[in-house]
Write a structure and sequence with these properties.
Layout lengths: L1 E9 L3 H11 L4 H9 L4 H20 L7 E10 L3 E6 L5 E6 L2 E9 L1
Antiparallel strand pairs: 1-5, 2-5, 3-4
Helix pairs in contact: 1-3, 2-3
Length: 110
């Protein structure tokens, strides 16, 4: 039985979040939470909260043994840019693209 959770429009670049997501993929839920909780990256904290949310969703269903869950699938997709402008040289302005991403996780019972 699958359990899903997602975060959308997170203010973290997709490429940076994928580095953390790749470490967690296909791991047991307890091991994944241990890995993520000791990482210094911003996306690690977000993924930890997402994994805890998915576990809470599993506890809600009451047909799933939470101790046997593993990360079946985790995807990080690029979301829309926030476009901001800052002063450039010679009176011009330059555009700064603030990146955001969507993170989706699927847990399944072993």
């Amino acid at each position: 039985m699958e359990v899903k959770a997602s975060l959308q429009f997170i203010r973290v670049g997709a490429q940076k979040a994928r580095l953390v997501a790749n470490l967690v993929r296909s791991k047991g839920i307890n091991e994944a939470l241990k890995i993520v909780s000791f990482m210094p990256q911003k996306s690690a904290g977000l993924i930890k909260n997402l994994l805890e949310s998915a576990v809470a969703n599993a506890e809600d269903k009451k047909t799933i043994d939470v101790d046997n869950l593993y990360v079946k699938n985790i995807t990080v997709d690029q979301a829309a840019f926030s476009k901001r402008f800052r002063p450039g040289s010679q009176g011009r302005s330059t555009m700064v693209k603030k990146k955001s991403s969507h993170i989706k996780v699927t847990l399944e019972e072993r």
